[in-house]
Amino acid sequence: MINVPELFSSYVFNDGEMRKRLSEEDYLSFKKTVSAGLPLDKELASAVADAMKNWAIEKGATHFTHWFQPMTGITAEKHDSFISPVSDGKVIMNFSGKELIKGEGDASSFPNGGLRSTFEARGYTVWDPTSFAFVKDGALCIPTAFCAYSGQVLDKKTPLLRSSKVISQQAKRLLAALGKHTDSVTVTVGPEQEYFLIDKDMYLKRKDLIFTGRTLFGANPPKGQEMDDHYYGNIRPRVLAFMEDLDKELWKFGILAKTRHNEVAPAQHELAPIYTVINVAADQNQLTMEMMKKIAEQHNLICLLNEKPFAGVNGSGKHDNWSLSTSDGENLLNPGKNPQDNLPFLLILTAVIAGVDRHQDLLRLSVASAGNDHRLGASEAPPAIVSMYLGDELMAVMEAISTDTQYVRAKSKKMNMADGLIPEFKKDTTDRNRTSPFAFTGNKFEFRMPGSEFNISCPNVMINTAVAEALDEFATALENSEDKEKTAKELIKNTYNAHKRIIFNGNGYSEEWKEEAKKRGLLNIDNTPEALLRYPDKKNVELLGKYGIFTEEEIHARMEILLENYCKTLNIEARTMIEMTNKEILPSCMEYMRMLSDEISKKASICIPALTETDLLKKISVLVDKAYDTVKILELATDRVGANKNAHTASVNYRTAIFPTMNELRKYCDELEKIVGKKYWPFPTYSDLLFSV
Ligand code: ADP
Ligand code: MG
Questions:
Q1: What is the CATH number of domain 163-550?
Q2: What is the DSSP letter of 385?
C-alpha cells in the first residue's frame, strides 16, 4: 500500500522543507522578499542555497541545474556537480547563493529569432523563487527564467511572470476602486492533458512516429471511435499500470494529479491536475509531459503528445482552465448566488469578454503550430474561430443588464431519476458546450484551443494581458468616478454590448457558424503562418509593449522562431514521407505486384483466367504510378522551398505547396494500404497501433 500524503511532494524543496531548514528569521524574510517581488540579498540567498543543497543531497542529488523553458517547446537543463576541491586532495559539496540565483549559458544555441548571433552568445538563467526547486535524475532542479545578455527574453517563463504581475496589479486596482481590498490577486490554472499510448515495439517500426511524433500515412481502421465506447471506458491493465506509476511519480513532484480517464479516441487518455498558481502550473505541466514520456517507456509504451497522431480520430488538446483568485482564496470568477448584483464578478467577466474579442488574433496565434493545424476546426476540437460560451444563466444575466430589464433567475430543478430509488440531486442551471473554444464553466474559463504538446505559457500570457488591458480601463474609470455603482453598471453594459459578437452558445462545429462568424466580423484563421504573421500588427505591439510583456524586437524574434519551427516541422514531415514512400511503401507494393504477376503467368500457362489478380494488379499499378509521380513532385518542392531562407515566404510556401502535396501522396498510399496484402505492408497499420495496448 502506498502512503500518498507521505509520498506527496517528497522530491520538492517545498515551503515546509524550507521552514524546517532555515532559521525563522531567514524563512520569514525570504517569504516577505518573494511575495513583494524584491531581489534577495546575498546572505539570505546563501542560506537558502545551503539549505537546498543539504536537502537535495539527502535525496540523492550530486548535481544542480537551472531548469528553464527556452523556445524549443521542451525544458532545458545543464547539470553541474556540487563538488568543490579542498586542500587535502578531497572535495566538499558546495552550492553558493550566486549559483542559485544566476546561471550563464550559450544563448545562441537556443532558438532566439536572430536576437543572438554566435559571436555574442551570452545568456542568463535567473531563479524564479515563486516556483519550487525539486530533485530529478540526481540533480537539484531550480526553475529559472532565461534571457539574453542584452536583457531580451528568450524563454516562455519570463513573459508569463510579467503578464501575471500585470493582471494581478490591474485586478487589485479594480477591486480597490470598488472598495474591496486584497493583498494580491493570482491567476489560477488547471491544464487538462490529453495523450495517446501505443506499444513501443510497433512505434519503432514506424519512421513517421519516430521522426515526427505522428503518423503521416494510415488508412482508417474498420473501427474507430464511432461506437463511443472508449470515453470513460474501462481502463485496460497495461494502461492502468502506467497511470498508477505516473500518478505516484507526479505526486512525488508535488503535482496534484487528480483525474485519469480514457478519452474519446481509441488509445487516447487524459490526466487532469487540481489547479494551482499559474507559473507553478506551467512548470508542473512541462514536468508532467516529461514524466508521461519517461514512464511510458518503462512499460514498453510510447506516449504521443502530438496534437494529431492519427487522422480520422480525435486529436489531443490541453484545456487551459483559467481563473483569478484573491489572497484569501476567493475565486473572482465565482458568480455567487446573485450574479446580477455581483459587480466585481460582472466587471471581471466583461473584462474577459472584451479582452478575448479585441485580441482574438493573439489568442489564435498563441495556439498556432503545425500539429494543432490538423486539430483546430477538424470537427472534434474547437473551430479555428475564437468565440466564447457563457451558458444560459449568465447569458440571461448579461442580456438583462444590456437591455435594462429585470433578470429572473431560472430555478435549479431537482432531478429524481428512479422514483426515489436513487438520491435526488439538484441539476446545474447550465449545460456544457463542448464545441466552444473559450467556455465559461461555472467558476472559471476553459480555453480549449491549446494543443496537447503546448507549453501553456504563451496562451496564458495572451489571456492575462488581454484581460489586464480591460481591467486597467475599468479601474481608471472607477477611480475617477463619484458614483462607483452607476459607473460599474455602465461599464458592464457598454462593454458587453460592444463585444457581444464574440459570444456564441450554439454548435461551433457547424458550417452555419462559419457563415455567421464571418457576418459578425470574427477572425477565422485556419493555418499557422497566417496566424503568426499577425503577431507584429500595430495593435499587438502596442498592447504587449504597453504592459512590458514584449518589445517590438522580441515580438519579431518570437514570430521568426515560431515560423521557422513550422517550416522545420513540415520539412521533416515531407522528407519522412519521401523516405517511407521510396524505401518502404513502393518496394512493398512492387513485391506484391510481382507475386500477382507470377500468379497471372502461372495461371496463363495452364489456361486459367486470373481475373482477380489482373484486376488487383491494374489497380495497384495505377496507384503506384500516382504515388511515384507525387513523391517526385514533393521532392522537388521540398528542395525548392527548403532553400528559402526567409521564414515568412517559406512558411507560406510550405502551407500552399508542400502541405497539399503531402496530403495527395498520403491519399494514394492509404489507398494502397487498403488493397495490398497485410504481410506485404511494411509497417504496423492503424488497427495495429490503436488497438494493441
Ligand atoms: P470539467 O472541465 O470536466 O468541468 P473540472 O471541473 O474537474 O472538469 O475542472 C477541470 C480542471 O479545471 C481541473 O484541472 C481543475 O482543477 C480546474 N479548475 C477548477 N477550478 C479552477 C479555478 N478556479 N481556476 C483554475 N482552474 C480550475
Ligand atoms: Mg474540461
A1: 3.30.590.10
A2: B
- Rounded to an integer, the average pLDDT of 107-127 is 81
Strands 301-304, 185-199: pairing is antiparallel
Domain with CATH 3.30.590.10 in the chain: 163-550
Residues 81, 94: Cα–Cα separation, whole Å: 9
Tell how strand 438-440 and strand 91-93 pair up: unpaired
Residue 129 is placed in which grid cell?
A: 523563487
pLDDT at residue 429 is higher than 70: no
- pTM attached to this predicted model: 0.95
Domain 4-155 carries which CATH code?
3.10.20.70
Query: Phi-psi category of 157—alpha, beta or left, where left has phi over 0 and alpha has psi -120 to 50?
Result: alpha
Query: Quick one: which ligand is closest to 191's CA?
Result: 1
- The set of protein residues with a Cβ atom below 6 angstroms from ligand 1 is 188-190, 192, 272-275, 321-323, 331, 441, 443-444, 446
With a cut of 70, say whether residue 118 has pLDDT above it. no
Q: Which residues pair with 237 in a beta bridge?
A: none
Which ligand sits closest to the CA of 322?
1
Q: Residues whose CB is under 5 A from ligand 2 (ion)? A: 319
Residue 497: which residues within 8 A CB-CB, separation 6 or more? Answer: 402
What is the structure's pLDDT at 222?
A: 83
CATH code of the region 565-690: 1.20.120.1560
pLDDT over 90 percentage in the chain: 80
Mutate to test the pocket of ligand 1, among 194, 256, 321 (most ligand atoms within 8 A of CB): 321
How does the average pLDDT of the chain come out, rounded? 93
Sign of CA dihedral 454, 458, 460, 466: negative
Range(s) of the chain covered by CATH 3.10.20.70 = 4-155
Give the per-residue pLDDT at 226: 78
Alpha carbon of 323 to ligand 1 centroid (Å): 9
pLDDT, position 72: 87
Ligand nearest to the CA of 325: 1
Residue nearest to atom 1 of ligand 1 (CA): 441
Burial class (CB in 10 A: 0-12, 13-18, 19+), 570: buried
Contacts of 28 (CB under 8 A, 6+ apart): none
